[in-house]
Amino acid sequence: MEKDKLRIMMIGAHPDDCDFRCGGVALKYAQMGHMVQFVSISDGSAGHHQMKPEELADRRKMEAQKVADLAGIEYVILGMKDGEIMADLDSRRQLIQCIRLFNPDLILTSRPNDYHADHRQTSLLVQDASYLLIVPNICPDTKPMDDMPVIGFFYDRFHNPSFNPDIIIDIDDVIDKKFEMLDCHVSQVYEWLPYTNHRLDEVPDDSSERMEWLRTPTIADFENQKNSLLLPESFQEKRSGIFGEARMAETSNLYREQLIERYGASQGHLVRFSEAFQLSEYGFQPDDAELKRLFPF
Ligand SMILES: [Zn+2]
Predict the structure, then answer these.
(1) Which run of H or of E encompasses 79?
(2) What is the secondary structure of 135-154 as a DSSP string?
């Protein structure tokens, strides 16, 4: 294991959660030569209105592999049943083994309060696993970790309690490729998500038109003369479920001050797309130097 290479594990409930929530940061790590592994706890077999579970799980595995090839990362599907993830002992053991095998410096995952039961259970599973990762008598077949990893939560829109970012990363340099990652999840971004939003009839057939549709609304409509983003409050409700550029710019709009603090006034004001993370109290607690090492951007 190369010492200067970071090992970053991103754990979502479904095979597209990590892509949406931290795909940009994943690309930045991979481009610097660090190891990135996406883990989907479930097989994704519930996310479609027409396809049968088995057929869908196979298709989503292929979509995830396409993302892995494109981004230069690993994509692991643990394969629990979609819609039925439970933070029980069996699942906990399975995740402890999976995390120990990869031996990450940093884990990014969902917060425990989220609209989807699978996202909540995934977050619980990661937190339940965290301390036990270093305990040799738990899952004795896999080597315990020397230290708990740092754990961070993806940004979400829920307010009870609200998300408080500890780290915010400029992803302008990789936004096109992040959309290419999302574009790999055809069954989701062009079929299932539009279906749940009653917008299936809007989806173009042509692949380049599709990408344009995926990026709409673009942020050009929301920029003022100073090139700062001003997303209206009403925007959130209007586009729930589908992303678009404006949704990817939401954290920059909400946490502009933190961007300026991190990158300085001239760059901080101009960042359009970003990804934000909140640290968990249950992982290793990093000091500033460790945070700099873990987020070297
Ligand atoms: Zn999900």
Answers:
(1) strand 74-80
(2) -TTSSTTSPPPSSPPEEEEE
How many Å separate Cα 191 from the centre of its chain? Answer: 20
pLDDT digits (tens, 9 = 90+) for 171-190: 999 999 999 999 999 999 99
Give the environment of ion ligand 1: residues with CB less than 5 A: 13-14, 17
Among 86, 106, 85, which Cα is nearest to 10's? 106
Number of H helices, E strands in the chain: 14, 7
- Total-model pTM: 0.94
Q: Which residues contact 142 (CB under 8 A, 6 or more apart)?
A: 96, 97, 100, 101
Strands 150-154 and 274-279: antiparallel
Task: Judge: domain 7-294, CATH 3.40.50.10320.
Answer: yes
Cα of 18 from ligand 1 centre, angstroms? 8
